[in-house]
Amino acid sequence: MSEKLKANLPGEGGRINAKAVGLAAALIALALICLAPAQPGLSIAGQRMLGVMIFAVIVWATGAMSYPVSAGVILALTALLVGFSPNSTGGIVGTSAGMKMALAGFSSPAFCLVGAALFLAAAMTITGLDRRIALLVLSKIGTEPHRVVIGVILCGFILSFFVPSTTARVACLVPIVMGVIAAFKVPLTSKFAAALMITVAQVDSVWNVGIKTAAAQNMVAVNFIKSITGYDVSWLEWFTAAAPYAACMSVFLYFVVTRLMPIGDVKIEHGREAIRAQLKALGPMKKNEWKLLIVSCVLLFLWVTEKKLHPIDTTTSTVAAIALLMMPGFGVMEWKDTVHRINWGTVFLFGMGISLGSALLSTHAAQWLANEIVAGFGLQSAAPFTVLAVMAAFLIVVHLGFASATGLASAIIPIIIAVLSSLQSPGVNVIGMTMILQYVVSFGFILPVNAPQNMIAYSTGTFTVKEFAKTGLILTAGAYLLLLLMAKTYWSWLGLV
């Protein structure tokens, strides 16, 4: 092949650019679905929204464009394709109505909660309270290798209550653990370093399951459950159902990491002193740290007692807390210092994700697709447990192609709810089973690219993709089997299955 022809190929050095291929595949899929013959029982607007959904899935799975840019493209496609769809009177829906549908997610309480959660995470970083909590836990747990792993798991668990952002929690723990590795004079390429950093990433994924406010994708599921069924899952209801599962997975994580990566022969001298030195360097608790700690504890109390002692929903209590934390004279942060710490691209993607799911529902595309899935797999009369087992396995496989659990939840949760609603089997708890399947959306254990927190940990160079996948495959298998076990026992007793 001539050099001139090579130069004309997309990608550096004549290699085909994977992002260009992904974008081309997404556009072709969108065109094929939109131009396909009309399907019985599916409106033109619904058919076009299915095309937008497939476009989004391919773009997100291939990384054809950044998440914020993809959100903007999906917004434009929704407004235009739905806007020029025929309506029941022989005219068109109109781009104004199409844009209103595309922006629906940005008026959702879940969207507001995620934004507020990112501000709360920023407050933790600005004051240094998250770092103090993590160092305090590590200083108390001991410095034997196995105890340090336990300490990292406990840090991930505790921070999940106070830092409602997975990326922020990992971003807090990674430098602390790197400091521990350096202080213990252990090579970055050692099994001990790999075990600690893999634990940092995996424990945060585990507790994304256990705590409603720990991850944005949970807000997606809760939002769709409320919009479709009218039921608002409280913080305590989620915790009661999911925390035992996450606790069991935390124990399993400890044994997987310590068995696959033998760290018992690591010799650590003056480890406790090294951690205490880092803690001492922070100095005594500062005024802003005390303020944030008090507000966070009150906020946690309000989350736990929602619907029990008061009627204040999670979103309202969180927004009120952020308003207090930014109030002149009392607050712990100012807008100019905080605005640069917020990942606005994540916020934009989250709002667009909710809009995508809402559009699939309002055009009845999700319901049509659900009926096709149920009929295609013969699930009409299947037992709820069978449906749960099949759909959980399906989600695990699909997640391998996603780097965003929020994106996966946005595309799949409305369809899951529609599938469960269309089942003819008696005793199907749509709300409970949707919650359980949402837990699977948070797995992301197998590959570093399956979650942002994995990539942050992987960027430290302490472990290889093979090491992460080795532990991740075992964690995923264990998580799936535990899910089936709890579906037959604990969740069945709670009436969720």
From TrEMBL:
Q: Give the membrane topology, semicolon-separated if more than one.
A: Multi-pass membrane protein
Q: Which Pfam families match?
A: Na_sulph_symp
InterPro entries to which the protein is assigned, alphabetical: CitT-rel, SLC13A/DASS
Subcellular locations according to the entry: Membrane
Q: Which UniProt keywords apply?
A: Membrane, Transmembrane, Transmembrane helix
* Transmembrane segment boundaries: 20-38, 50-67, 101-126, 146-163, 170-188, 238-257, 290-305, 317-335, 342-361, 373-398, 405-424, 430-451, 472-491
Q: What family does the Swiss-Prot or TrEMBL record give for this protein? A: Belongs to the SLC13A/DASS transporter (TC 2.A.47) family. DIT1 subfamily.
Protein name in UniProt: DASS family sodium-coupled anion symporter
The opening ranks of the lineage are: Bacteria, Pseudomonadati, Pseudomonadota, Betaproteobacteria, Burkholderiales
